[in-house]
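To: structure subgroup
Subject: Chain for Friday's discussion

All,

I'm putting the inputs and outputs inline so they're searchable in the archive.
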Amino acid sequence: MTKIKALPEPTLRRIPKYIHLLMQMKKQGVVHVSSATIADELGLDSIQVRKDLSLAGMVGKPKVGFDMTELVEGLMNILNWGNLKEAFLAGAGNLGEAILGYKKFNDYGLNIVAAFDNDESKIGKKIYGIEILPIEKIANMIKRMHIKIGVITAPPEHAQEVANLMIEGGIWAIWNFAPVHLKIPEDIILENVQLSHSLSALTYKLAEKIKTNDYKIPN
């Protein structure tokens, strides 16, 4: 793997797809893979895949392709998935509970070590082995434990307050699931997960398909 520059956002968002596919192929005993094979399996343009891997510093061998182990490890290192990063979650509702229960995040380098809420009925309880703590403690604990990643699954009306507390504690990056625009300093990394945007795209495309095919929804 060669030294790389900062990757474009579209490339960063495709790399997890490559990793998931490659890990499945590796389990099946595949030891070498070409960019064309990756493209075919994912329904992508082979030139784009080759460019992505090149931007990521991955170098294959002519007529052989990429060494599977080196390719998987290299791509995971680029996303920093090889190093577990501890994180705090704020908002222990249904979505927060689902995220706490998704243990696959450990494979992606994320380890949620504590959760916070302002609901007294939840405080002190454990969800998937993680104790729910009072939200007012989050800033101090971020400082003491040197936590760099905050996950917000709080209701939209509380999301900004939670973000402020995280930033006060010294958080570097926020993964925001609340459907609200957060006002944060420019030096804080913010990644918004807008489920409503994804759903709106799905329903729009469905409506277009229905019109195109003159399809009538059954009663």
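Points worth raising on Friday:
Residues 82 and 109 are 6 Å apart (CA to CA).
The longest helix spans residues 9-27.

D.
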